[in-house]
Specification:
This protein is mainly alpha-helical. It has 25 helices and eight strands. The strands form three sheets. Strands 3-4-5 form a three-stranded mixed sheet. A three-stranded mixed sheet has the order 6-7-8. It has a two-stranded antiparallel sheet with strand order 1-2.
Length: 583
Amino acid sequence: MAVERGEPLFQKLKRPNIRYLLLAVLIGVLAGYGAVLFKLVLKFMQWVFYQNTSDFMTFATSVPLWIKILMPAVGGLVVGLVVTNFAAEAKGHGVPEVMQAIALRGGRIRKRVAAAKIFASAVTIGSGGSVGREGPMVQIGASIGSSIGQVFKTPSVHMKTMVGCGAAAGIAATFNAPIAGVLFALEIIIGDFGVMQFSPVVLSSVTATAISRYYFGDFPHFDIPAYSIVSLWEYLLYPLLGIVSGLVGLSFTKILYWFEDGFDAIPIPDWIKPAIGGAVLGGILAVFPQVFGVGYGAMNLALVNQMEFQILFILIFVKILASSVTLGSGGSGGIFAPSLFLGCMTGGVFGFVVHFLFPTSTAMPGAYALVAMGGVVAGTTYAPITAILIIFEMTSDYSIILPLMLTCITATVMNSMIDRASIYTTKLLRRGIDIEAGRERHLLDHIVVKEVMTRDFVTIPAAAPLSQIIWTFKTENAPYLHVVDGEKRLVGIISFRDIRAVLNEEGLLNLIIAHDIATRDLVTVTMDDTVQEALDKITDRGVSQVPVLISGRDRQLAGTLTEHAINAAYNSAIVKEELAGRR
């Protein structure tokens, strides 16, 4: 019996291309070693500033006051010079820059960004900056993924997957949490859970985690308390903890950008501002050494119930202030670790209160601190799946899942109802970039309709009979006819679809006039409106073009504006901005 030879089975199945899987492994290797290098450089920088690589809380009392103030200021000055003269992308918490690269540049990130981010973030954290290292590692990993994609000439449709592989590897290697790394990349960076994205991201995350564990071991960053549900009544408290955690996360977002606006308004060179922020931070560290750097030491004390209620409560506000000053002034570091810190302190306070009120029905404060860590992360990033899994991976305790789910989902839903933008997308919106819309709004806000519209349009009198309408469509080859009255004012629009129902009715050719069948409920724009305003109207109404009036009062027709023209204007503006940025 002859066997028909057809196309190999693996080609019939829609599997990821082997080439991209191999690239994902390569990205994982490089990002894993990038994480190792970053941790070593970070330790080295702390030694340079303080001649000690231990947790700052263990030797803070031996550091003179002037050193505590001077070192963060010096670190800020160094970071300001690097960001200003080498790579502006190294400023801030990194993740929004990666999201922007995917949304607007097809995932292309300059190759120098990884080196600049490693150095700038290590200096910031090593000198005392109250920020995390996961944001820098996301940007470092994403930059590596983008560079690999560019070197191997990866098509633009797959570039965001390469960037996502690097981001996942960065998170996985930083937190020893490969599953959370995958979900972070898919949930926040790529925004797609498809198989074509999932498989390479998993490979990259696992590879980076294996490298990180080889050098640093397989252990959590925190002293995780034994977790258990004391009473079923506790499940009623976790949604309340989600509300409290969400409010803390929302406050952090608002205060962070309030400080950023404040520093932006100071009329001095940008490279000096991180030094000023560093000096202010130094004053904070002199009183509260717990907020130095990533703050894992203080978090461990809170998790094992070795921190008093008063200091837990105060540190919530101090950490928000310290992180906001560090990032708002132009420092380099992530917001993930500060969110974990805030959650730990918030949960500790909440746990003290509920344990005082219900001592026999509730766990110790450390248990609530652990759950609230995920709650604040979810409330700032709007990524509840990532928040749930990263805490779960750190504990390896299934009993924590239900409390985590209740807390994280409550925080995310509440905050997204108050403000649709997360701590990441808020930064993009402030630049005019709306990820949901997929456009850089500020570009279209600076283009007026009269610069883009076409003046080639076809009009027809309101009293024109159906026969004239049909003849006009045949001869003018126009998609729309603009119906005008005796004073040439626009009164309606006719599309070919409007006359389709009466085409075969010969007796109506001279009975029906344009005014009868025209769409008169029109959405219009004026010549002086911005293209973004016009795009919003087109999107809301679901049309492909709008009439352009000279002014809204007299309704005199000046032209038409199409989606195609808007896209062309947008692409042209993007090219001009890219060219300007390279000069």
